[in-house]
Structure formats: structure tokens, C-alpha cells
Design brief:
Distance between the termini: 48 Å
Strand content: 25-35%
Structural class: alpha+beta
Order of helices and strands: EHEEHEHEHEEEEHEEE
Number of helices: 5
CATH architecture of the largest domain: 2-Layer Sandwich
Radius of gyration: 20 Å
Helix content: 10-25%
Number of domains: 2
């Protein structure tokens, strides 16, 4: 019989990390980041806890990753450690090890529960080449609709879903300093997950919304925050608190 693998000790500390994807690093995929992050942990000799089994792996839990091509100020990951360390020491080490544009902003001791459960909503900025009156008309038509069906290719094939239900707030404002418009978007995290590019598709399905290289440029997506949702004020809190 195959010998059973040694059981690993459970983590003695869990740290939650907020990092940002900025500049050209917004094109980093989740897989690219996870590889760079794990290499940085090993390079800086962070005392990681490992899973049990025949193929132990470091205890790292990713949650709520932004789509490839989107910048973000609020990406989160949780790590389990085999020794207690100062969060600031881990932050400083990762800042040195990760490339500019993948920037560790904050490290905090886990307060318990699942990190993913605290990521209930997110706020986004979407910069468009579209003239403001056109964007405002599309937003008005979108918010007036009860449902807005869109399609997206998933692992199991083309999937159709309603993107309107997850949009808690949406408005069009002038784009600072350049021509075009900007969308302020508040998205509830639900199943199926609605992404900002789904909302752009939905806007274009209810009203003319010319975007793309042939119309002056592609939408630029930036996540500003994600965390617990205050249903009364429609604000997003800090998931590390």
C-alpha cells in the first residue's frame, strides 16, 4: 500500500493582503499574478504553511480577482503562515520582491471568517471615448430596464444572464482632462458574477454606445474598492477591518 503523506500542521497565523494592479500591469492575468506572488513569497522566505496530501502547496486563497485588462486598487489574497510575523514586515518584503505595478498596499491579520464572504460589492470607473450625452442616454435606458440580458463565453460554453440586477448604481460624468465620458459603477457580487465589461455590453444593447478602436478607443476599467456592502448607504467598506 502507498504510504500516507505526512499531515501538515494548521496555520498559526493568517494574513490578508490588499494589492493593486496599475499601469501596464493591468494586463497581468490572475494566473500570471499568482505565479509572481508565490515566487515572491519564496524569495523573501515568508514562513508559509502548507496543505496536507501527496502534493503539498502553500496556503494561499485568492478572492475577487479583477478581469485581465482591468486596473485595480483593491485586489485581495489571504495567506496561512507556519509562524507569527509582523504584517508590516511581510508588506515590506513583498514590495521589494514584486514588480512595479503589482503593488502591495496593506497587510492585516485575518479577523476570521472567509475573505470571499466579505467581498460583497465593488466600485468601478469606466472611461469611454463616447461623448457624454450619448453615455448619459445609454445609462438612462439601462437603469429604466427591468432586465438586460447579455452573453459571455464561459467554461461550459456561451452563457446568457441578466446584468441589470447586479448594478446598484450607475451614472455618466465628464471624463477628466480628455474627451469622452466616465461611468461610475457600483456592482453587487452575485452569481453569476457580472463584470464591468458585461455592463458595457448591456448598455450597448439598450441604446447606441459606440466603443472600440474604430470609435476612438476601448473602455478602460479601474476598480477602486471592493468589500462589505452597506445596503442603506450603498457604500463599500474595508474588508480588512
Amino acid at each position: 500500500m502507498r504510504q500516507q503523506p505526512e499531515q501538515q500542521a494548521p496555520p498559526v497565523q493568517r494574513l490578508r493582503i490588499r494589492y493593486a494592479k496599475r499601469g501596464r500591469l493591468r494586463f497581468t492575468s490572475h494566473r500570471d499574478f499568482s505565479r509572481a506572488f508565490e515566487r515572491a513569497l519564496m524569495r523573501e522566505r515568508v514562513p508559509m504553511a502548507y496543505s496536507s496530501g501527496f502534493n503539498p502547496h502553500p496556503r494561499i486563497s485568492y478572492a475577487g480577482a479583477a478581469p485581465t485588462g482591468a486596473a485595480s486598487e483593491a485586489e485581495y489574497v489571504e495567506i496561512g503562515l507556519a509562524a507569527v510575523v509582523e504584517p508590516e514586515a511581510v508588506r515590506s518584503a513583498l514590495v521589494e520582491a514584486l514588480p512595479d505595478g503589482l503593488d502591495v498596499v496593506e497587510v492585516a491579520v485575518s479577523t476570521g471568517g472567509k475573505l470571499a464572504d466579505r467581498l460583497q460589492a465593488s466600485t468601478w470607473l469606466i472611461d469611454l471615448p463616447t461623448p457624454l450625452p450619448v453615455a448619459e442616454a445609454a445609462v438612462e435606458a439601462f437603469l429604466a430596464a427591468e432586465t438586460v440580458m447579455v452573453e459571455r463565453m464561459a467554461k461550459k460554453g456561451l452563457r446568457e444572464f441578466d446584468c441589470r440586477a447586479s448594478v446598484l448604481a450607475l451614472r455618466a460624468v465628464p471624463r477628466p482632462g480628455v474627451e469622452g465620458s466616465r461611468l461610475d459603477l457600483l456592482l453587487r457580487h452575485a452569481e453569476p458574477a457580472v463584470r464591468p465589461d458585461d455592463v458595457i455590453t448591456g448598455l450597448g444593447s439598450v441604446a447606441p454606445l459606440p466603443v472600440g478602436p474604430e470609435h476612438g478607443g476601448v473602455p478602460l476599467l479601474t476598480r477602486l474598492a471592493q468589500g462589505p456592502l452597506d445596503e442603506e448607504t450603498l457604500t463599500v467598506g474595508d474588508p480588512l477591518l
